[in-house]
Amino acid sequence: MKKKILLTLSYILVAAAAAMVTLTLTMTMPIRVSGKSTTSKLDELEALILERFIGEADRTAMEDAAAEAMVDSLGDRWSYYIAAEDYEAYQEQMENAFVGVGITIQVTEENAGMLVVDVTKGGPAEEAGILVGDVLTAVEGTRIEGMETADVRNLVRGQEGTRVELTVSREGKEMTFPVERRRIEIPVATYSMLENQVGLVRIENFDQRCAQETIAAIEALLEQGAQSLIFDLRGNPGGYADELVKILDYLLPEGDLFRTVDYAGREHVDTSDKKCLKIPMAVLVNEDSYSAAEFFAAALREYDWAVIVGQKTCGKGYFQNTLPLSDGSAVGLSVGKYFTPKGESLAGVGITPDLTVEVDEETRMQIYYGRLPIEEDVQLEAALELLETE
């Protein structure tokens, strides 16, 4: 789980040591004061580059590259480095809210702009007239062909209440829209009532507001007469442990819910009270269901509370702390392991569904963006059939 823990790190990745030491004339000799080395290899290398490199050297770029390489060297796919320029966007993501225009973009196959793959309902981009399928070609008159997604995002970002001009190509014609930047809260849990009084709850992630919105969705469906529930966790990347535990506590009877063991060997077990919701349930998962999404499904199955339908999950068994660094960057570092209520690790194993239903890549992307019609969703249909036999 990603937990925001503000720490003062005793070790700074690459110290700004060039002004604090004097390089020896022989490059093969380490930098020493009173016979003792005072810097790391990275300090030495940075100082040498900044003093002697014939070209231009960008200290921030060097330190970002070194930091990313250090984290990559761990061989842990779940640990990651966040550059200072990206940290604000990362925090917004964890809050399920951001200041922006309300579009999701991806690079086009021709790299001729950014394809608009989603437009936030009721958001400023929708109000301005931007549509899914438009290709973003310029921001404030700056052409974006060949740019990275992060660079385009930085062009679009700005102060809440200001406007940005977005130029899009639609059916071969370019048009420009002035769009207001606003704070947009992303819905975490959405719901609908299906046939036969089956309530469907789609959970996007387990970040902020997840428990509140998920429980509210369940209760709204129960008020409408839901007799069974399907939780759609396909593409859910996980999130905070405490959000997961609140939902499990609401659903499950008395007992263990979730176990963690941190880097110091400290174990913590979250438990549930006697109050629970006992109706037939199913959980939809796929290979993009990570972390808390997997442990949600695992807990319900271990309590014999739900059947699992879809595809085998990713198998993430470590949790991360986000540790800010002194220059405004941060590292998401794996600092512990987590386990199911029965003490099972899912690391590298994941969850094999009770009923496996495969889909092709095109269908998977339609599911991810919420565009697959219910009648064409074979995984959802399979879950409905299973619930009918309960």
Q: How many domain units?
A: 2
Rg: 25 Å
Q: In one word, what is the shape?
A: globular
Number of helical segments? 10
Number of strands: 22
CATH fold-level label of the largest domain: 2-enoyl-CoA Hydratase, Chain A, domain 1
Name the structural class. alpha+beta
What is the CATH superfamily classification of the largest domain? 2-enoyl-CoA Hydratase, Chain A, domain 1
Average pLDDT: 88
Helix content: 25-40%
Task: Give a short account of the largest sheet.
Answer: 6 strands, mixed
CATH class of the largest domain: Alpha Beta
Proper CATH architecture of the largest domain = Alpha-Beta Complex
Q: Estimate the strand proportion.
A: 25-35%
- State the distance separating the first and last CA atoms: 33 Å
What does this structure look like?
The protein starts with a strand and ends with a helix. The protein is an alpha+beta fold and 390 residues long. It has two domains: 97-184, PDZ domain (Pdz3 Domain, Roll), CATH 2.30.42; 189-388, 2-enoyl-CoA Hydratase, Chain A, domain 1. A hairpin with a 2-residue loop joins strand 8 and strand 9 (142-143). It has ten helices and 22 strands. Strands 1, 4, 16, 17, 20 and 21 form a six-stranded mixed β-sheet that branches. Strands 6, 7, 8, 9, 10 and 11 form a six-stranded antiparallel β-sheet that branches. It has a six-stranded mixed β-sheet with strand order 13-14-15-18-19-22, sandwiched between helices. 27% of the residues lie in helices and 28% in strands.
